[in-house]
Design goal:
46% helix; four-stranded parallel β-sheet; single chain; 355 residues
């Protein structure tokens, strides 16, 4: 996290009246999806309006989509979503779990970077939607003397609706700067060996606590419209590869693990199989009463995992006759995850700085 005080000095050989400039450093800006400021109606409406107005997320014509969104969807959905957020809210901290976890991740990564690079780097986080905004954090880094910024969307897999829109917001911020820093964006890390190992270790740890091994592990990824895949988005293929690499790392048979997709929104077909339907089918048609589920596409637990998976999808499984449902938490600020993210950062800093 950035220090409140910013050291400044005059450039070498500058005239006496030259203003002091902040000491140059490298900014490492982590980015996640976002969170409402609260779960009340208006906080939820502001957040959902920003999120669902993003053309990367919903690419229908604004002439058709915006009237439907503003006059119909946003009259009822904020209350329903607010109730879901309330059920998982970190009431002690007064914020969503995603905010708490992302802050904890940033602190842990900042400690790692500090131990390697000292005060030559500055680590902070922003949200694509809501607060803290990408714009506010980019501006703060530039004012603190960051002449190079590594922008790191915390999505293991690339999708236009996640990584791309985060990058869009970042680059739009740079358009307002008179003196732009040099920048880099981080590639998806869905196949990075340390990420796969951290995932595998989280599964092994969870299974070690169970009396009976689950019949099957579902890797549930956030869905996107199938049309996006047909238009060239690589997300589906990257998710399938993560599942395969996880299975190989665990040493499992193909029958022990599957890929599914959750969070369908709107009338068109999304990537299948849908998690909420698949868990019911597994229980009713295949007779598998003991399953586990993890969410490799999420770097931190959030509404889609804590409420959708651990409440709605669990209910679908149990209603169909399932008996034992184990949700394996996201990697969050687990040391193995922090080490994996730090390794990705180190690789992307090459040529800019050395330990």
């Amino acid at each position: 996290m950035p220090d409140a005080a910013i050291s400044a000095q005059k450039p070498v050989n500058a005239p006496a009246d030259h203003p002091a400039l902040p000491t140059e450093k490298i900014g490492i800006l982590l980015a996640n999806l976002g969170t409402p400021d609260n779960y009340d109606y208006w906080s939820m409406r502001r957040y959902l309006s920003e999120f669902l107005s993003d053309r990367r997320v919903i690419d229908y014509s604004p002439w058709l989509w915006q009237p439907l969104l503003q006059l119909v969807i946003l009259t009822t959905r904020p209350s329903r979503s607010g109730a879901a957020y309330k059920s998982i809210w970190n009431h002690e901290a007064g914020e969503s779990p995603l905010m708490t976890i992302t802050r904890d991740q940033t602190t842990a990564i900042a400690d790692t970077m500090q131990s390697q690079y000292g005060d030559r780097v500055m680590v902070d986080f922003c949200m694509r939607y809501g607060n803290p905004s990408t714009r506010s954090k980019v501006k703060a880094m530039i004012e603190a003397g960051c002449r190079k910024i590594l922008f790191f969307p915390l999505y293991p897999h690339y999708a236009g609706a996640t990584s791309a829109t985060a990058n869009d917001a970042f680059f739009r911020c740079l358009m307002d700067e008179k003196w732009q820093p040099a920048v880099r964006t981080v590639d998806p890390y869905f196949a990075h060996p340390q990420y796969i190992d951290a995932l595998a270790r989280s599964v092994e740890t969870a299974y070690a606590k169970l009396k009976t091994k689950p019949d099957i592990l579902l890797c549930s990824y956030h869905g996107v419209p199938k049309r996006y895949l047909m238009e060239g988005d690589p997300y589906h293929c990257q998710c399938q590869k993560t599942t395969r690499l996880l299975r190989e790392r665990l040493g499992w048979d193909k029958t022990e693990i599957r890929t599914t997709f959750q969070s369908k929104f709107g009338p068109e077909e999304w990537l299948k199989p849908y998690t909420v339907e698949e868990v019911a089918r597994i229980a009713a048609d295949e007779g598998k009463k003991n399953i586990a589920i993890c969410a490799p596409a999420f770097s931190a637990d959030c509404i889609e995992t804590l409420e959708e998976i651990n409440e709605e999808i669990r209910e679908s499984f149990e209603h169909a006759g399932g008996q034992q449902f184990t949700y394996i938490p996201c990697l969050n600020d687990d040391p193995a995850h922090i080490a994996a993210l730090s390794a990705v950062i180190d690789e992307n800093l090459q040529g800019w700085i050395q330990p």
